[in-house]
């Protein structure tokens, strides 16, 4: 079958959804089309437009403007959601280059192939909806220090779009990364399962192993501190039984996951950037990828320097995602995480940073530092 015949054999289906009530609006369109490789793809285009009366700086993180680097949409078929099969970065607070400036009336567009992060299971109608909040701030605050800016958070109430997938056998799927664990070093941490260390220098491996042993000795102690206490309320908000049980469950899932499945650390991940110390791939279980900045620039080993990311806090953050299915909400730093606990405790108990903060502060000799 030649290219033109294959192209006409695929039924293209494109719908457009527009949100006009916010300063930053979003138009979304999706279609199934043939790629240069002879397989079909689900191509979605997202157009962000400044419809306000002044210029705005839009955070690119967790949007298609940075590519396929986060689950900014949901996809479902017959009411059943498809699992996101992509990357999840550990993030430091955003810098100026993480924003894009849109003047009045200006638009910016990104096109991605969402079949690279979702596996479409059969022919039929699929529902696609943009779900991640947008973060932006007015131009007149652009001169301020980024860390001090209170960005506006807008949850888009846009209508979903629908696409009719045909000829599923031609549709490409997410690529699953293969790991060769027999090429690494495998060690058992007492009471905490197997640790596999791939790549890296001897010094880097020893450092990660030291952190892992420290985590294993502290996790059960941290779980035991969960109660109606100041420590809990600072990071997870108003105490109630349902939310506190959720926190206990997530810490227990980390403990059980390490004991039952072990953990693999790839000490030289191939998706690293200068600003990313670690990441996970949702379709590669029980694995954390570490980056050069983790080894070179994160100088503290443990949580003794409160408020500063450390090797221990970064790994705990990623373990909460690997085994506890926590999420990132574009909330960075201790002050902002405390505010999240007050304003949205339901989000705090599923927020990766909240677990990182709580874990580090759960060391008994830090308690007096928090509440002075």
Automatic annotation (TrEMBL):
Keywords recorded for this protein, A-Z: Hydrolase, Metal-binding, Metalloprotease, Protease, Signal, Zinc
A single MF term (Gene Ontology): metalloendopeptidase activity
InterPro entries: Fungal_M35_metalloproteases, Lys_MEP, M35_peptidyl-Lys-like, MetalloPept_cat_dom_sf
Any Pfam family matching the protein: Aspzincin_M35
Cofactors demanded by this protein: Zn(2+)
Domain Lysine-specific metallo-endopeptidase: start-end pairs: 217-360
Membrane-spanning intervals of the chain: none
One example of a Gene Ontology biological process annotation: proteolysis
Domain of life: Eukaryota
Extent of the signal sequence: 1-21
Protein family per UniProt: Belongs to the peptidase M35 family.
Name the UniProt record assigns to this protein: Lysine-specific metallo-endopeptidase domain-containing protein
Source species: Amphimedon queenslandica
Taxon lineage: Eukaryota, Metazoa, Porifera, Demospongiae, Heteroscleromorpha
Gene: 100631869
